[in-house]
UniProtKB/TrEMBL annotation, chain A:
The keyword Cell inner membrane does not apply. GO terms for cellular component: cytoplasmic exosome (RNase complex); nuclear exosome (RNase complex); nucleolus. It is found in: Nucleus. Residues 3-135 form the Exoribonuclease phosphorolytic domain. Gene3D superfamilies: GHMP Kinase, N-terminal domain. This is Exoribonuclease phosphorolytic domain-containing protein. GO terms for biological process: exonucleolytic trimming to generate mature 3'-end of 5.8S rRNA from tricistronic rRNA transcript (SSU-rRNA, 5.8S rRNA, LSU-rRNA); nuclear mRNA surveillance; poly(A)-dependent snoRNA 3'-end processing; rRNA catabolic process; TRAMP-dependent tRNA surveillance pathway; U4 snRNA 3'-end processing. GO terms for molecular function: RNA binding.
TrEMBL record, chain B:
Signal peptide: none annotated. Its main location: nucleus. Residues 171-217 form the K Homology domain. This is K Homology domain-containing protein.
TrEMBL record, chain C:
The keyword Transport does not apply. Keywords: Coiled coil. The keyword Coiled coil applies. This is Ribosomal RNA-processing protein 43. It comes from the Eukaryota. It comes from Hanseniaspora valbyensis NRRL Y-1626. One of its GO terms (cellular component) is nucleolus.
UniProtKB/TrEMBL annotation, chain D:
The keyword Ribonucleoprotein applies. Keywords: Ribonucleoprotein, Ribosomal protein. GO terms for cellular component: cytoplasmic exosome (RNase complex); nuclear exosome (RNase complex); nucleolus; ribosome. SUPFAM superfamilies: Ribonuclease PH domain 2-like (SSF55666), Ribosomal protein S5 domain 2-like (SSF54211). The lineage of its organism: Eukaryota, Fungi, Dikarya, Ascomycota, Saccharomycotina. Belongs to the RNase PH family. One of its GO terms (biological process) is TRAMP-dependent tRNA surveillance pathway. Residues 47-160, 164-228 form the Exoribonuclease phosphorolytic domain. It comes from Hanseniaspora valbyensis NRRL Y-1626. This is Ribosomal protein S5 domain 2-like protein. InterPro entries: ExoRNase_PH_dom1 (IPR001247), ExoRNase_PH_dom2 (IPR015847), ExoRNase_PH_dom2_sf (IPR036345), PNPase/RNase_PH_dom_sf (IPR027408), Ribosomal_Su5_D2-typ_SF (IPR020568), RNase_PH (IPR050080). Pfam families: RNase_PH, RNase_PH_C.
Amino acid sequence: MTNLKYSVLPNLDGSCELSTSNSKVITAVSGPLEPKQRHRLPLQSAIEVVIKPSFGMGPTPREVLMQDKLATVLQAVIVTELYPRKLVQVNAQILESPFDEFGSMMGNSFNEILSPMIDLNSCFNSSFISLCDSAIALKSSFVSTLLGVTEDKLINIAEVSDLDLLRSFNFKSLHHIVLEVEENKPTNVLLLDSQGDFNDDDLVNVLDNAQKITQKEFQNIRNILKDKVSQDFIWKA
Amino acid sequence: MSVSENTKNLIVPGDLLTCAKENQTIDILGQGIYLSFENHLYNSNKIYPTNVGIENYTTKNNKNIANIDYNSKRYIPQQGDYVIATVTNNYATHFVCTLNNFSSTVNLPYANFPQATKKNRPKYENGDLVYCRVKVVDSDLPAELECMDSETGNKEGFGLLEAEKGKHTAILNCSLAYCRELLFNDKGFPLLSDMVKKNLSFEVAIGINGSIWISTGSLLETLCVYKILSKCEKAERNLHAQIIEDTIKEYIKE
Amino acid sequence: MSEVIDTANNINEDTNGIALMQFPKEVLSRLQPDLVLQRHLQLGLRPSNLMKFNEFRNVEEQSNDALIVNHSTASQAQDNTNSNTSGDLIVANNLLKVGNMFIKTDLSLGITAVETANIEEESFAPIWPEVTVDRGRMGAPTDEEMIASRQLYENIISGKYIKQKNLIISKIGKKHLESEEISYDMADDEENDELLLENKNKWCFVIYAKINVYSREGPIYDHVFNSLMLALQKLTFPSVYIEESSIDLQISSKKSFNKKQKQETKRTFNMKFDFDACNKLNLNSDISISSNFGVIYKDPTMAINVLDEQESNEEKEEDAMDIEKDNTDFKKEPILINDISTDIEEQAILSKVSIACNSKNYKSIKLMNGSNNEKISVQQLKQALKFSKMRYEDLKPTI
Amino acid sequence: MSRFEFYNNDGLRIDGRRSNELKNFESSITTTSNFANFSRNTSTNTTYLQMGQNKVLVTINGPKEPTNRTKIDSNKATLSTNINISKFSKVNRNTNKSNLPDKQTLEWEYEITQLFSTIVVLETYPKSTISINVTVLQQDGGVLSAIINCITIALINNSIQIYDIITAVSIGIVDQKHFLLDLNHLEEQFLSSGTIATVGGGDQVSLLRIRDKFPLDLIEEFMQVGLQGCSVLKEIITKQVKDMNLNKLVEIQ
Amino acid sequence: MAKDLVITNTERQFILDLLANSQRLDGRKSLLQQRDLNINITPNRYGDIYLELKRDDGSIATRLHCKVTAEIVKPKDQRPFEGTFYINCEFNGLAGLNFENYKVGNNSDEFYYGRLIESMILRSNALDLEQLCIVAGLKVWNIRVDVHVLEFDGGFLELASIGCMTALLHYRRPDVTVRNEKVTIHSFDEKEGVKLGVLHIPIALQFNLFPLKEAAEIIKTNTSSENNNELVVLDCTLKEDLLKDGEFIIALNKNREIVQLNKPGGIPISASKIVEFSHMALPIIEETTNKILKAIDIDEKKRNKYAHLLSAENDRYVE
């Protein structure tokens, strides 16, 4: 079950701590800020994403790839033209990942791919709440889902709480899908990152399921936001 | 207006505005609503809500105004706002000020002071607070502040916020909506008058950029006002009276 | 603004005293890539070599076997876990020419010690790629290079191309001192046995890929991937032998002050590659071909012919807003562009998808919508998937 | 620990000093002919200090216009310290290939900058920087104290305004009871030791650095020994500086 | 974001005035009062600690995440019998925008504090490195502690030292058997993890100095140590931290041993005061150490609920 906590960092404009059954991240968004000279764009805001791994110095290439994916999608969602010559900074720190214990990567080579996908999936959902919290203008909402396809099943990876089970799944393919949500309904695909062996039918199946999960998950997010707004105006009530 | 009741009207980016659903015309777009210029080209205007908040649709002077009420911490300069700026640097023609830490800096030209001449220019030091108004906002240039009413040339209460002799001052940062409410809605939100009723004597200046400047006669009184204002931001309305009483007891009538 | 730039033919001042400037094509394409792209799209063409929307660039494979392997050089492995042998020895290469862009892939081998007993059947080996885009200067890798390297690494694992089992060195030979010949049987004499048995199934190959991109044109990832795939297909493993003379016993004698001193012997094996006896790598799955697509909306207001019409019946200084109002019936149409191939396209097209597939399956899809106004719909994705299959069939003969 | 007898029954240390005896202390500036090859006409003096076998050179640049415009403070000067420990300064040559300073040196730089920022009258030099460059030619225990002492002398020689003289010594402890002042190389390696710097030889401690395990109850004695050492050192430095400046005046005349 | 946090003159004066009157901006009424410390150990994991400093009103002032990870590496050439130990402590953008995201400046406080903690543990042998050796010269454990600052309002040094020590005390590495140079690593299911050899628990305490007079005056009033020249404040908030004018840091363990005593420059303070405060630090550190041990003990009890049925020991902590 996804657990969201908003406004956890009072020092920053917007923040969120997200924990799923198997991972935990904290993200923060600040903006619009004064950018450094090299980040300055004349007609729109620059978006800087920094993801820190759960251990060790970062960002390593693993995180750079994650940053690139997150930044590209945020580019489409944030109303960048509202803040020309400014910077929107997104920071994420991965706190727990199912693969950060010694030896957890071994045994299944797919884990090497699964691990950044799990982290990124959490980062996406968490950064949406952070963006809302920071009051940066958004064009639409989005929800991210991570699905794994095994021989006979489709698995929503965020809901697997047994780490040993997660590490030993024999996935045929993995799909990370970010769907745009408009008027409470999932509409466009913002990001689709699929790896492994799959065919057209798998893809259709995955997209269908992702829509269902997104619909459900968005209700949860909406409730959180409702709570957030009433907390924001608590002194008024 | 109670907020908790109104969370039914919660608007999330990507939603359709209720007024748009009901085909009501909107003349003025308030905060949190964005008209995409991309679509404007094709006369198929699409109005986006861009922030999470509560939709607010009112009619004023025969104009329909729609906006989304939301709270935030970072101030984006808007023309005509009363702000408290911090001087961070000075140049030959202007002060460089900041309205929020790490936001883009804004300029306060010497010419925007009353009776400004080349020789008579204000001497502010870095780190000083100035109460002023946003004069011009331009997306390509830093916003410009002014320390006078540009029509009359009067001082109008703008200027340096400094501690007078025997006074103790403090500056409090809080959320923008809270500051707006304190400044504009004294009738609906009489927190400051409540405090005065409890025999607290203080002077405040409220900047829309989330800064409240407090000045009182004693250090503890300043701390007391500071504490009340910051505690009330995080407490429900009906608890405010209690907070005022408790804090006064804690700091003043020990 | 955009109209002003292109319609003025010579520098002359207009009424506001603002000089109008004319830019050469190359400059304009850097200043206003979207404008240049739109102008081309109106004509049904693309900026690079006037390609069609659904056209791919020509791909030529130029392999040069002379580059591979210098038999006299040999590689060394030390008896410890993180030894990796020098990666200078190129065992397979590929030179891919895509349009004007060259991609050179060099595969080299290393040897590492592993617990072979722990390797499962369904365990797949990675390749360690290092992508370098030639930009005329040295320095830390750019984000693009890091992303491409990492993506290759992930996609090689997820594509399940190489089984870890296939990389185990099961047979280790020994070069005799006198006879200079290499024996791979280990039944001969006892001394032999001990040495070779000790080393049996203890070592594993590691594949390194050094990939250079010259005269970059548009996104590199897909072509780099293809080049790596083609090189991988040619990969052969040499046999490994130990030169008898080179078995060293090293005694480490580091003195540590007032610490209990343990004498530690370290054995160094000089492992050498024997290219006379090569085995081909058995790929677990067919190689796949990656191709990319982008979606852009044709924007009629940016078209040059529209302006021409305007010019004929209206004043040049006509306010831009008026022009737009007159053309409200214009519709934006989405265009699927295959094989994003120039800097102009790369910068102007924000929504991209890259698909790797072989005749059976898709191996990876990476779809990123970078713009809210120009999204890739599911319909277009389907179209792109179809094209990618076609592309695979197209390139199959070269494979 | 007891491989060496650091402090024998006669009250003598390995190098023959008493427990509270300082190493010989000799400082000079380039104008006094110790280093003829350094140009006399440069705007800055090079100060050389020999404290036992520690050999330290300090040059001070500034106050000068800052190269980095972001570092300008319109109210006062900024200090920067750069310590270069030469690779041949120890018995074993430092085999570290990179030319970057190691972490210990960076720590020292940080501490020395902090230390002298309160001692130098920075308000006299607004919008400028003063950079302190230290070269350690040879080290023999208590290098940090030698560097600090040398910088103090260098600041005086360069006529930069300071509030007071800073003196520093290193202190070690043998067998939890004997305190040794101004350590040499061997003592520093095997004993719990620390460095202390005081202002003007009084009891105002400005810098303190103990990085070894050390019984809490001995701290008072440790401080006393340190303060004593510092105040003796202050006299020495004052005398030497006065002599140096007399020489300087004589030369100028 | 290399920019500094701007502290306005009004704020500076207000905070300093408050301190002079023994008041703190966050509601504390004594200069030596510390904020409440909370140690949370993540269940199901080893060496994963969250630390919180709580203000009087219950809100979290500073939050730190410490995580221990282990891997097998080749030892350093000079020390073939010892494992390696690193502390990676970075302030990233989450701690506040005044911290730069990529590089840590060499002259920054963060760098200095990180080094202090690392040398506090290494130089005093708080962690037994020889226990981490698997095969001498070839395979040793590398223990790394990552300190993530999740929220920052002062008190970093104390928290980081507490966090590192708690995490090291709590962490268990997988057990290893070596037979004929063959190394087998046992998962936690096969064999219970091995605790790290923590020999003593050093904890740092930072005393912050605020001058009551001009710096020149303090230096001039040399020998008269009776005079009160400065305020000594414990557990500064971020803003107080930026306004302070000197500090001294003491790291102690329960055995009355100083592990570190640092005063890096700043305004001078009389020697007798340093001695006085060093002795004052001891009870504070003893209390903190007990807090750490208790947190770990409670966690361990939770982990093996049924262990007490098998053990003959009495409960150590009776509430």
